[in-house]
Every structure is written in C-alpha cells, then in structure tokens.
Amino acid sequence: MDPEHTGAPGLHRAPVACPPVTRACARPGCGDAATATFVYDYQERTTWLDRLAGERHPMAYDLCAAHADAFTVPRGWRLVDRRQGHTVRSELAS
Ligand SMILES: [Zn+2]
Known about the structure:
Number of strands: 5
Largest sheet: 5 strands, mixed
Helix content: under 10%
Order of helices and strands: EEEHEE
Low-confidence stretches: none
Bound molecules: zinc ion
Number of domains: 1
Shape: globular
Strand order of the largest sheet: 3-1-2-4-5
Mean pLDDT: 80
C-alpha cells in the first residue's frame, strides 16, 4: 500500500520536545527573559496572553513576567490570560 511506511515506522516521528526558550521581553528598555507571549486580534478586540510560545510568531510579542502581569489592553478590549487556567479579565472604563 504505502512502501514509505513499511520499513522503519516512527523514524521521522521524533517527539517535538519543548526546548528551553530564552527570548527577551519585547518592551523597550527591558531585557528580562520573556515568560509570556501575547497575540491580539483587532477585529475581535481581544488580546490573548499565553505562556511563552515555543516558536516566534510574527503576530506575537514576548513579555517578561513583570510586564505580562502589568499588561493592560485598550479600553473596550478584552484580555484573556491563558497562562494558567482560563481567567478572563475585562478592561472597563478607567
Ligand atoms: Zn519586560
């Protein structure tokens, strides 16, 4: 049927490990190691805060722990912190 898979199954299926990632916080002037990654969607007006992504994404920005904790979104936007659990914080009028 599929000769490619009759020889040594699994050879090309090495598990993708999570390599230790060391990237710097994206905030200007902050060189701390990033521990979180955030992405946003203008149409949804939502920002998602995740644990540091394994791969750099052009639409994602890295933040250190301090900046991730202090992260706020513009008025009318929603911030979804997915770093632990699924807590949702809404940024209401300040
Ligand atoms: Zn920072």
